[in-house]
Amino acid sequence: MLMLALLVALADDPQPGALKLYGDWAVACDNTHRCEMTSLYPPDGPSDADADYQATASLTRAAGPEGSFAVELYPANTVKGRVSVRVDDVPVASVPANAAGDTVTLAAADSARLAAAMANGKRLTLTDASGKLVARISLAGSSAALRHIDADQGRAGTVTAAVAKGARAASAVPGAPVLPRIAALRPSGAAAALPPALRASLEQQGGCNDWYEGTESRPETQLHALGGGKTLVLIPCGAGAYNYNSLAFILSGGKAVEAGFDLSSGEGEGNALVNAGWDKGVLSSYYKGRGVGDCGLGASYVWDGTRFRLIEMRMMDECRGSTNWLTVWRAEPVFR
Question: Which superkingdom, per the lineage (predicted)?
Answer without folding.
Answer: Bacteria
